Structures are given as structure tokens and as C-alpha cells.
Amino acid sequence: MLNPRTITKKHTPALMLMLGTMAFSSQGRTQDATVASADTTRGSLPAPAESKDSSDTSEERWNIHAQTTYVYQHKDGFSAPYTGPQSLLPTPEYSYTWTFTTYIGARFWKGGELYLDPEAVVGKPFSHLFGLASIPNGEIQKNGGTKPRGYWARWFLRQTFNLGGDTTHVDDGPNQLASNYDSHRLVFTVGKITLTDLFEKNTYANDPRTQFLNWSMITYGAWDYAADARAYTVGGAAEFYWDNWAVRIGRFMEPKVANFTTLNEDIARYHGDELEVEHDHKLGDLPGLLRVLVFRNRTWAGNYMDAIAAAEGTGNPPDVTAVRKDAAKVGYGISFEQRLSSDIGLFLRASSANDRIEEYAFTEIDNALSGGLSVNGNRWNRPDDVFGIAFSTAGLNRQHREYLAAGGLGGFLGDGQLPHYAREDVMETYYNYHVMKGVELSPDLQLIRNPGYNADRRGPVMIYGARLHLEI
């Protein structure tokens, strides 16, 4: 994966390509199962949706799905007294991304599911992907470009061992064969995934293709999760489900170099470890979830204070890439989601990490708070529509601030100075308009204050966007 500093500066508009793949599935009948309601099991299933038809307990042998998503964004100009080598440009800009993914699943033995996801991507970021920690498009990639690139996004094996309890039927979907799962079960996943496939799968703020777009909204801002430049990694995880409880643990490869394309295969020495505990609950008849995540990354990374010390007396700004060594970063996240009524859902997140160590695979956020509401369109007779609004505030620790103030450059930030630090705040709202089955159109608005944590360039920055999502 490419460091964002090396992203091409030659950009040309991309044409939106239309979805042209059919969805297929093959089913075999299984023995009758007791189907639990969606409300009581939603948070504890390794799948996108539960069955709405209690008589449907069939299990698929294979399926194929596909999606395409196009995002266009325009940034207004804003006033800035100075602009550094890695600042958000104060001039008006446009940005876009297009992705196409095919999801192929097959069942080869009892409990064994294999998935393959070929994907293609095109993208043009704002300001060459510099100047913001809360990046406004979750579909943008660090090594993106204006020429289509194809790759294997995912290839993984999921093995489920049912251990008893109530049986729940899970519907067919992308990376999910229609299956029957026990409420007591052990699940192993091995292969190439993105960690948000398994950890912090928030109901209301997880998928930039249908929900909030900003990086600070789609997962924990301070979770520097193991990933290559496209956000994918290789490793394994185990999940244990017992009624309303779930525990997940995993180890995955880190990139060889911060924000780079190639993963380090020495997973025993360099790795990202995650541990998550989840509990489903009900307030009255309304379901909710609480998750706690802790992570520890072992990487070849620089320390901000080491970089500042190495630059003293040289007349040069500090360079965290020049002082890299074996280093560890530890952090945590807490996530709460709650349905407030039949059509309103709430999410809240908090995260923090000991980011004396440079950002390695996600973004330059050391601590963050976020929260928002998701409202179903039942109230205005549009039951398939969704309105969302959320706010996040991200911050840096003292060592990271001092590094940027001394003129240091990070993976994304570098105004050349930081005389007046302030938290980077984001407000985002979107409306997901259901055009027809499998077709959704979403206008999106983001307001960002203090881009790059710099109160001198506070903005606000206004970003107007539109997203077209097709899925079969």
C-alpha cells in the first residue's frame, strides 16, 4: 500500500460504472429450526440480517452478490492564514470514489463457509488526502488513483461449531450464506478481511456505502487497526457466543511500513491484537448493545518524542519516520447503541490510544467521542428510507501536538506549525433515499471545524456530497 504522501497528483474525472452482475443462490433444505426474533438476537449474529419468515430455515450451498457505490463530494473554499506542505487546501475542490465488489460464497462441509470478494476501485481525494484526520469519505483509499485497480478485497474461511441453545436462521446476503446458527456457538475466521467485518459492527454507523461517510463515524477514531492501504489485512479470529454475550479475539498482520500496501508476514513479531466483549440487552422491549474493545499493535514505528529529540539543534523539523524501531501501541474503545423507538436508533462511541507512537494504519486520531441518531422513514411513509445525523470530536495527545507544532509531518497532517491547537469537530447528516429494490441515493452534508487540529485554519469546512449505491 502507498503512503498517502505518494498519492498521484494527476487526477481526471471518473465515469460512474453501472452494476452488471446478477445475484444467484443455491439452497438445500435442513431440519426444522426454532427461529428467534430479530430484536432478541440482532447483536450476536455474524451476519447482516435475520430471517423475517419463520418458516424459512433453508441453508444455502453457494451464493453470489454484487455492489457498486459512487460518491461525489464538493468542498467549499475557506479562509486560512497559511497553508503547509500537508494542509487541507483552502480552495474549492471536488472528490469522488467508485467501487465495485462481487461477493462469492460457498459451503463445502458442515459449518464451513468460504468467501471470495474481488473488488475494483477508483478515487480522487481532497488535497491529495492531506489536512484532515476525520477524512470525509470512508470509500477513499490511501493508495487510490484515477485509474481503476482490481484486487482481492477478501478471501476467508468461516467455520462455525454449534453448541446448542436456541436456533436462529440468518438470511442470505453479501458474505453470508443463508444459515442456521445456535445461540451457543464457536466461530473461527481465517483469511483476508477488514477488521470492521468482525469488531465494532455497529448497527447505525459502520458502513460508508449506506450510512455515515466520515472516517470518524464509521468506527473508533483512535483504533489504529491493522490494515494495508486499502483497509484489509490477513489473520485469524475466534468468536464465542453464549446467548446475549459474545467474546471476540483476533491477531492480524500489520503493514511493513506505516500506511503501506504490503503486509508484514512475520505475524509472530509484528501484529495487531484485538479483544472485544459484547452484551445484548433490552430497555423495555427495545434492543441495545454494549461493546468494549481493547487492542495492542506491535509494529516498526516511530515515537514522536524520539523524533523531536533527534531534530534538536539540526535546524530541521522532526521526522518520525527516521526514528522507527520495534514499538507497541495500546488503546481501547467503548460502543453503545440503543433503539429508542421502533424507528429511531442511537449510537455513542469513545476511544483512546497511547499515541506517542505514530499512526500506522488508520488515521491521526488519539482520542475521540462520537454519537448520533438513525431514523427510519416510517414516520413519513417511506419505510425503506433512513435519515442520519451524527457528531464527532477528535483530539491529539501532547506528544503528537508537539511534533506537529515543531513542523513534523504525519501520514495525513502537516501544516508546518500548530500554534493554536483545537479539537477537530465533525457534524454529518445524510438521507438514504430508497429508489427501488437494490438502489439507494443519499445526499450527504459534512461540516468540519479546525481541520488538522489547527484553530488558525478553523473554517468551518463545508462538504456537500451525494452517494449512489446499487446492490444485488
From TrEMBL:
Source organism (scientific name): Dyella caseinilytica
Annotated transmembrane regions: none
Family per record: Belongs to the OprB family.
InterPro entries found in the cross-reference section: Carb-sel_porin_OprB (IPR007049), OprB_sf (IPR038673)
Residue stretches of biased makeup (Polar residues): 30-43
Name used for this protein in its record: Carbohydrate porin
Region (Disordered): 30-60
Biased segments, Basic and acidic residues type: 50-60
